[in-house]
Amino acid sequence: METRELRYFVAVAEELHFGRAAQRLGIAQPPLSRAIRQLERRLGAALLDRTSRTVTLTEAGSVLLTEGRAALDAVEAAERRTRRAALPPAGRPGLVLVTKASASRELLAELLDAYAAEPGAAAVEVLLCGPAEQERLLREGRADVALLHRPYDSTAGFHTEELGTEGQVVVLPAGHPLTVRPHVHMADITGLPGLPLPRWPAPDGSYPPGPGPQVRDHAQLLQLVALGRACAVSPESCRDRLHGDLAAVPVLDAPKVTTVIAWPPHSRSRAVADLVRTATRLR
Amino acid sequence: METRELRYFVAVAEELHFGRAAQRLGIAQPPLSRAIRQLERRLGAALLDRTSRTVTLTEAGSVLLTEGRAALDAVEAAERRTRRAALPPAGRPGLVLVTKASASRELLAELLDAYAAEPGAAAVEVLLCGPAEQERLLREGRADVALLHRPYDSTAGFHTEELGTEGQVVVLPAGHPLTVRPHVHMADITGLPGLPLPRWPAPDGSYPPGPGPQVRDHAQLLQLVALGRACAVSPESCRDRLHGDLAAVPVLDAPKVTTVIAWPPHSRSRAVADLVRTATRLR
DNA sequence: GGGCATCGATACCCTCCAGGTATCGATCCG
DNA sequence: CGGATCGATACCTGGAGGGTATCGATGCCC
User: Fold this and answer.
1) 8 A C-beta contact, residue B122 and residue B95
2) What is the pLDDT of residue A226?
3) Rounded CA separation A45/A210 (Å)
4) Is the pTM of this model over 0.85?
5) Residue A278 has what pLDDT?
6) Which end of chain A is more exposed for a tag (fewer CB within 10 A), N or C?
7) What span, in angstroms and rounded, lies between the C-alpha atoms of A60 and A70?
8) Residues A96-121: what's their mean pLDDT?
9) pLDDT, tens only, A128-140
10) Does residue A40 have a pLDDT over 70?
11) What is the mean pLDDT of residues A21-46?
């Protein structure tokens, strides 16, 4: 199976429409139809049920969609990492680390300092991204190593080492009645009048239905809290970055957040290994 | 990047010889040279240093070798799982489970029975393999789920659930002086005169140097122990399968062995999810 | 119910590139 | 120095991939 065929199939399977898929791929519709049919012949499997009005995935087709996406990610990662390895060493990032823009700032600073002090340390480029994007960036080869936060992020398919665990706090507008309490429970903060918990986007970018404002990142979220439009449950390390308009109260029964360092399991890079070793020593 | 190009590059990188690689790929040498050169142009990266006598990998080349192998595995897995999903449902294995031929027989039997009793259970094909082969079979899509044994097997890149932990025993020829002891320590059994620990093959099939007989599977190993040519440290559950010529003594300080069930992280199969759920309930 | 719009399949043509053969040039060895 | 080895180059050919034009089936709407 060639990656071209996979790309074509994934496009059709996602659009469920040959015309749109062809447009997205920048080719005409007939060659696309032919390519899919040929793929089906070679696999000996019907991938799509087509009537002249609708296209639907068969069981085999939906298997190929998920497996094919994973395979295309792997090919893309191979290409990207190779390209980077070939850049002139001067100034090239030896290592790209990705983490959520809003988390683990203390830990990250410590880690970067400690690693930079190692003999033979590579230049580390830090990539900051929105929530739940780290996984994709790591899978696609845009990054070599990530700081993830369980249970928010899944560590699916990576090697990981735990770096630390912390409780969570609820972030509230300064002056809110609850801020005088030494601690609260989840039951105290779900359904606070006028302060709903926000909604985060799903991996596909869509928002789940329900009350609560839609947010894309932590800064947005804190802004909304300061405006008295939402409250938020966050790892307690975020307290360092709260300004005067905001207050935080520990939530006793919120799930603990574990920060882990994650990297692709087949990584052979010495720089990644060194960074991970440094990280585990920090604890 | 097309999988054809990747396959070509991996062949050359493994052989470090264009002629042999071309032969292995079933094509002539000139098109292979051209394909590699074109790949290098497109990536903007030198992958191989060639003189007219020797071929060596550049740094970028060795990155592409490991990343490319992973990508090719993913493509192969996609193809294989799709093909299987398209087989006529009658008699088709809904699920392929792989485990070492020698381990977890009790647990496996329990698991299969419990899963078969579930409503909507798929037919499970059990694949038995040599040590350390499960990973490859899972990555290549020949299996959907595996029983692995930490720390012997790496769980690199899979989702896992722990199923149980057990201590280890040393397996000795019946009548050996140590067999009267209620337990021993590792120090008691390393360097036993005439009973060296065996050598297992590395992932590439080669054996590490050193004393001790070379073994490929557990049956071979037990045979050698019975013949008085080796001793073996194994999970204690293997005691059930020891016949009269063999005796087992607990090793107090041997690492505990954890049996885990593992599956590819992007798996969307209901059958895999059901099986895993059944397995975690068994504990 | 008939005309129309939509959408995938088919027919046909053309271009480009993967693959083959022949040969060259460089390097190592005896 | 001559021969063997090995990758690169030159050149040719066939087929696969892509494009345009068009067909045939299906759902929709007046």
Assistant:
1) yes
2) 82
3) 41
4) no
5) 92
6) C
7) 16
8) 85
9) 887 778 888 998 8
10) yes
11) 90
Task: Tell me which residues from 26 to 45 on chain A have a beta carbon below 7 angstroms from nucleic acid strand C.
Answer: 29-30, 33-34, 36-37
Round to whole Å and give the CA distance between B245 and A82.
55
With tokens 């690693």, the residue in question is: A115
List residues of B whose CB lies inside 8 A of any A CB.
1-4, 6, 43-47, 58-60, 62-64, 66-71, 73-75, 77-79, 81-83, 85-86, 141, 154, 156-159, 264-269
Query: What is the Cα–Cα distance from A157 to B39, expressed in whole angstroms?
Result: 28
Gap between the Cα atoms of B96 and B6, Å rounded: 28
- Partner residue opposite B74 with nearest CB, options A46, A74, A86: A74
Phi-psi region of A226 (alpha: psi -120 to 50; beta: other; left: phi over 0): alpha
pLDDT digits (tens, 9 = 90+) for B113-170: 999 998 888 888 888 887 778 888 998 889 999 999 888 888 778 888 888 888 899 9
Structural tokens at position B6 = 């990747």
Least confident of A7-21, A94-108, B178-192: A94-108
Question: What was the pLDDT predicted at B278?
Answer: 92
* Residue closest to D6 C1′ by Cα: B52
CB B128 within 8 A of CB B100: yes
| C-beta neighbour count of B206 within 10 angstroms | 9
The mean per-residue pLDDT over the stretch A185-206 comes to: 80
Q: Do the strands B145-150 and B257-263 form a parallel or antiparallel pair, or are they unpaired?
A: antiparallel
Give the closest residue to B26 by CA, choosing from B54, B4, B52: B4
pLDDT value at position A32?
A: 92
Determine the distance between B58 (CA) and D2 (C1') in angstroms: 34
- Is the CB of A206 within 7 Å of strand D? no
**How does DSSP assign B239-263, residue by residue?**
GGG--TTEEEEEETTSPPEEEEEEE
Q: Where are the alpha helices (DSSP H) in A87-226?
A: 105-116, 134-139, 186-189, 218-226
The C-alpha of B165 sits at a distance from chain A's nearest C-alpha, in angstroms, of 21
Q: Using CA atoms, how far apart are residues A80 and A78, in angstroms rounded to an integer?
A: 6
3-state secondary structure of B194: coil
Give the closest residue to A237 by CA, choosing from A145, A129, A99, A144.
A99
DSSP H or E stretch at residue A194: none
For residue B8, count CB atoms less than 10 angstroms from its CB and return exposed for 0-12, middle for 13-18, buried for 19 or more. buried
Phi-psi region of A107 (alpha: psi -120 to 50; beta: other; left: phi over 0): alpha
What's the confidence (pLDDT) of residue A277? Answer: 92
A11 burial (CB, 10 Å; 0-12 / 13-18 / 19+) is: buried
CA A272 to chain B, closest CA, distance in angstroms equals 13
Query: Do B43 and A265 lie within an 8 Å CB cutoff?
Result: no
